[in-house]
């Protein structure tokens, strides 16, 4: 099956081991043999709009045809697969079953104790067509992924990474084991929604099922409570049980009714009152970013049937253009800044996280939204590219500042405390969206330059590491951490970007969550 792929050994299972993995269904076995025969019944699921779903849904939920992946077909894809396998080997040797690999100290870091790297990246493995790695990951999830962990987890992070990862691989394979795990886990998260307002708490203990605000604040982050809807809705559609969608959709409805600054929202919201902390920052970076992303993607996920999601998104883009977009001196690079003190003061600072935004804008334009969104996407994408190209490592810092008043001769500058790179995916994500819609190979070339930056300055003997300084090619200051999103998102987006088929994952059929996990669009 893996023609033109790097050599990988296929596990030859003995009789005893075959019995242990007998739950692997036909679609998985077909994947291992290189073909798929799942049927797509193409039945329609009606969207609930603002109403709750019926509580007596018993009809069979339609299954999409499993996607056939044949492994890498281009030389650049093959290099990405090699990078993934290098990272996987280090993780398997020194951090197996733990959340993150620390490749330099040959150890691990447990954030939640949920095997994040495995669960988060199994759909990447499947898309790359890696047989041995897939068998390893699936077996660990089946035998060892348990949710009776007596520690707090962050609702947003585990929803996009764990629930999202399980649902994504379920849709790609139709293996019910993943859906069963998804149900078990989601049920343990539902207590987060038991608040006075319906705005969820940020933290929950999956063992006790008790939820509460974070220790450092009474508030939840706006982006976190509004970036769980794709996952909970998808679980309801996959199971026919409306409770997950109802709880998450209510959050979007509540936020929809709140007063905003031309569609822009503060980054904190209180789960008891249901109100924004009005003095907090407005940003498309940390704690604000994916609110805007999920407005659009929820609208698409539900077949463009919930108008307020589209309208709130369009209003927000107008707010971005009116309040957050500026150009630098002297070269006029467009960037998206922040509003402080409840919108009173502008700060010319942009998180790397904001570089997801060109891809989201392009996705909206592709689906009939204003042409000005595409122009904004192209201009911001060019600026994001500059945040890489202006450094000798060809890697971007976590935060970039911009010159808007002629205070110095550089359009872009980086403060010492902001010069780290965490192996983030956002710009590569946007390049992939732009490439799929335009088929412009320039975006592939930009991505290749950045991939080489990762290879040259973050690759170590046992994996890849975040670095502390992108401004020097001789003093990058390795930080000894490989987050799960490097395998789940960054390498996945590189692989998709370098495909000779721009629609290897067709964005007219699928919506991709904030952690690069793939869900079907339920069209009407």
UniProtKB/TrEMBL annotation:
Disulfide bonds: 355-384
Enzyme class: hydrolase
Compartment(s): Endoplasmic reticulum membrane
Keywords for this protein: Calcium, Disulfide bond, Endoplasmic reticulum, Glycosidase, Hydrolase, Membrane, Metal-binding, Signal-anchor, Transmembrane, Transmembrane helix
GO CC aspect terms: endoplasmic reticulum membrane
A Pfam family matched in the record: Glyco_hydro_47
EC number(s) reported in the record: 3.2.1.-
Purpose of the protein: Involved in glycoprotein quality control targeting of misfolded glycoproteins for degradation. It primarily trims a single alpha-1,2-linked mannose residue from Man(9)GlcNAc(2) to produce Man(8)GlcNAc(2), but at high enzyme concentrations, as found in the ER quality control compartment (ERQC), it further trims the carbohydrates to Man(5-6)GlcNAc(2).
Protein family per UniProt: Belongs to the glycosyl hydrolase 47 family.
Name of the molecule in the record: alpha-1,2-Mannosidase
Lineage: Eukaryota, Metazoa, Ecdysozoa, Arthropoda, Hexapoda
